[in-house]
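Work through this:
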Amino acid sequence: MITASAHALPGRIAINIGEVLALLSLASLTLEPLLGSAAAAAFLASGALLMLSQPLHSLSSLLRWWPLLLLPVYCLLSIFWSEFPASTLRYGLQMTFTLAVAIVIANRVPAVALLRGLFLIYSLGIVLSLGVGRNSDGAAWLGIFDSKNAFAAYVAVYALICVGLVFDRDAPRWMRLAALGGALLSLPLL
């Protein structure tokens, strides 16, 4: 996100690189149904850059929230009794990295900036689903997703984000009105 900063020179806008990389990570996950493995690569790259842009902060966040990493550690240990250890290792590493990026995002991006960024990202997904989406059998709308359940889950999260933003008194008026429209649009989409 682009924000005014006390550290910026007068008349200039400072860009919070942590917020930008976090939102790029989340946007790539949103666009995964359209971009496939390119979206996964974008998530890996932006997530790694996010963690490397402030490595001490990232490390302290991971150490502070270490109990959340117990599940991926267990998944990684399960390679010893898995029937498919190579796949188990791959999925365990993916889960570990994804959770590590989530922990760093949660500790680095203010909640209000995350909510507003998620609104913009999810709105893009809704617009794409309405513009280039499709239905499966003439009845169920799939949007950009492979199943009606995936689309419904996306719309449900979008509705929650919209409702949260409607009650954000510090959000710009246009954003609150757009969130209200998004919340109302979510009803027929569900």
In short: The longest helix spans residues 85-108. Confidence is low (pLDDT under 50) at residues 1-6.
